[in-house]
UniProtKB/TrEMBL annotation:
Keywords: ATP-binding, Cytoplasm, Kinase, Magnesium, Metal-binding, Nucleotide metabolism, Nucleotide-binding, Phosphoprotein, Transferase. Homotetramer. This is Nucleoside diphosphate kinase. Major role in the synthesis of nucleoside triphosphates other than ATP. The ATP gamma phosphate is transferred to the NDP beta phosphate via a ping-pong mechanism, using a phosphorylated active-site intermediate. It catalyses: a ribonucleoside 5'-diphosphate + ATP = a ribonucleoside 5'-triphosphate + ADP; a 2'-deoxyribonucleoside 5'-diphosphate + ATP = a 2'-deoxyribonucleoside 5'-triphosphate + ADP. It comes from Roseicella frigidaeris. It is an enzyme of class 2 (transferase).
Amino acid sequence: MAVERTLSILKPDATRRNLTGKINAKFEEAGLRIVAQKRLHLSEAQAGAFYAVHKERPFYKDLVAFMTSGPVVAQVLEGENAVAKNREIMGATNPANAAPGTIRKEFAESIEANSVHGSDSAENAATEVAFFFSGIEIVG
Ligand code: CMP
């Protein structure tokens, strides 16, 4: 298996409840390394651009409103099979379907306020990492 990098976002519901440390512990306990991290308050244009792939979905407007409702923490996670591993650690998008022990099962409030975002493929990970970070900000 190859060492990969994936983009993670701790969402406004997680920063609001001061859960960033507890969530980061889940990544680190599972063997992922946080090789870049920054706290941001996204503008509507930034959140809209990040989620442009969902533009036609009925939840897009609410998603952008939620993602701009408070600070987020954008991160690059690195490790063996990091894209798939992070998705396992996060659990299903809808916390009602998330497995026990996953971040979304333990912390998510709803399908929208689901605490974390993680890239869904290696290709999207590269695009999403580049959206938030320049090469010099990622320290492996
Ligand atoms: P995320 O992995 O950040 O990608 C898109 C987000 O849209 C998703 O997590 C959810 O938080 C949010 N969302 C809101 N409603 C839905 C829905 N019905 N189906 C999928 N994603 C949704």
